[in-house]
Amino acid sequence: MEKIVCVLIAIGFSGFLISCNQTKNTKIDQTELVNNDHYVSIDGLWRVTPETAIKYPHGTLEPIIQISGDAFGQLAIRGCFLWDGLFYDYWDLKNIQLTDSTHQIELHYDDYGVYKGVVDQKREMIQGIAYWNEKDTADWNKIDFIRDEDLDINKLFIPYPSGPHGSLIYTYHQPKRHNDQLQTDGIFEYVKDQTAFYGLMERIIRQEFGRLESLLIIKDQNLVLEEYFFGYDRTQLHCINSCTKSIISLLLGVSLERNKRLDMDEPVFNFFPQYDSLIVSGGKEITLEHVLTMTSGLTDEDDFEKNNQDDVVKQMLCQPLESAPGEKFKYNNNGTNLLGSIIYTLENKQADEFAKEVLFNKLGIWEFYWEKENGVLQCHNGLHMYPRDMAKIGLLVLNDGYWKGEQIIPKKWIDMSAKPSVPESAFFDYGYQWWYRSKQNKSWWNDPVHGSIDEHDMFLALGFGGQYIMVIKDMNMVIVTTSSDNNESNGLAHAKVPMVIEEIIPLFD
Predict the structure, then answer these.
(1) CATH (residue range 24-155)
(2) Taking Cα atoms as reference points, which of 220, 176, 227 lies closest to residue 198?
(3) Torsion of CA 41, 42, 44, 48, to 10 degrees
(4) What burial letters (b/e) apply to 230-269, b meaning 16+ CB within 10 Å?
(5) Most buried in the list 102, 176, 184, 496, measured by CB within 10 Å?
(6) What three-state secondary structure class fits 159?
(7) Could you read off the pLDDT of 441-494 as tens digits, one per residue?
(8) Domain 238-508 belongs to what topology?
(9) How many CA atoms lie within 13 A of 269 on its CB side?
(10) Tens digits of per-residue pLDDT, 421-435?
(11) Angle at 471 between CA 468 and CA 476, to 5 degrees
């Protein structure tokens, strides 16, 4: 993505102004070419054609570029990728060169990549080749672009609405109350250093902590911050990815208590006696706790058919174990799907229906979407929620499962889920499908030191790409983020953790 040079101008305590100047402009012969005696601009949003989109077994990657010109005959370029139609990552485009006499366009990206194409006379299509090594044809990708002005540029490139003259202006507004059971308050009832707060919001808008799409803070039971970025708002469902696992854990706790089976040492096969003949070596030793803490030894391979609930359980349980139960932590999606099957066995309904009955309706969560494959619920991910509803889940856990006069989740289950049961790494411990972090864990952003002596313990629901529900109990706080930091190799998805520890919590201390 092109760099944005931002200048901060403080405006009292009510907000700040960020004026932005674009860089990486490359001078060209002229920004518009003649077609039938009329100038036709190349400016605009261009999307890869369906025929030349980059197809993978599990999805489609679509390059997007935005070209813009100015009065001095220069063009600026920026780009991104969509994965199955949703923002995936920025495309690190360096510059653009356009030769009007031959209609040739050249884009340089990353360190060595080049895209060479030809713009048609009507400025409606660009046809070309992207490659890293021009001599290696196996490295070539044919990529053609067509104009697509229906794309929402805000969701792609604009983190916050522009003010006068194209500048970005942030002003705090207390979250509004809606008919969703959340109470609200002003953040400056709790945060006294307003300059530090506005400075942090500036850095968030500049994406220092990744591509945040929402940030919500609950303090002392009140929603005090609710901000959305990149064109999102409170009315849009967001896929929470593996935060789904933490909600499955809550539902399992309710079901186990209802059925008087809150024994974490109970063998998993007790819930599926019809498959006793499939027990592999060591399988009898797999307990509920092993599955909940991802120490079951079950394989995480997912190449079997999901035609119905019984098929899923049968195929998961007949796979050879990768390690002895309880021996080591290994992140495992199949284990969470097995927990969902236990709910199905106990309640005779899939977890989404059970969630509506015992959890969502009680919290005022009326709209959600949960992905299924061949009618089988995806329990390890695939739940889509509003960020405000994610905040309610965090608030419920903060309050030990108690909500509006009712103990919805057993307090005992919250206590067991939110404590560190096994070490996941030097940076996190793991509970019952919830993560745990304390000052005893290392801070990867300040490696190799341990967390600050002032660091507060927190337990977290973590979803791929930056979907987080963070509960800081001794601060009486819940913090929710949604994001599209899908390229986790750059560390920006996990940047939300140091943002909370070192930037947000100190505002309230």
Answers:
(1) 2.40.128
(2) 227
(3) 150
(4) bbbebeeebbbbbbbbbbbbbbbbbbbeeeeebebeebbb
(5) 496
(6) coil
(7) 999 887 667 767 788 999 999 999 999 999 999 999 999 999 999 887 778 889
(8) Beta-lactamase (3.40.710)
(9) 17
(10) 999 999 999 999 999
(11) 145
